[in-house]
Design a protein that fits this description.
With about 50 residues, the chain is an all-alpha fold. The chain has one domain. The protein is elongated, with a radius of gyration of 12 Å. The termini are close together. The relative contact order is 0.25. It binds zinc ion. The site of zinc ion (ZN) has 8 residues, from loops.
Length: about 50
């Protein structure tokens, strides 16, 4: 199960450090900081996945 990265790109969830590499091939956008809401939701999901 893939857990979301809280600080991943707003659009695709890829981490900033590897965004240029991973989204580079078909990348139509640059890394964007996720919203507070997205960060919270991802952290919540991550917590849920860990306890499963
Ligand atoms: Zn992205």
């Amino acid at each position: 199960m893939k857990v979301p990265n809280p600080m991943g790109c707003r659009q695709c969830g890829i981490d900033h450090r590897v965004h240029a590499i991973q989204a580079g091939s078909g990348g139509t956008h640059t890394w964007e900081q996720p919203t507070e809401q997205q960060i919270k939701e991802r952290m919540q999901t991550r917590r849920t996945e860990k306890t499963r």
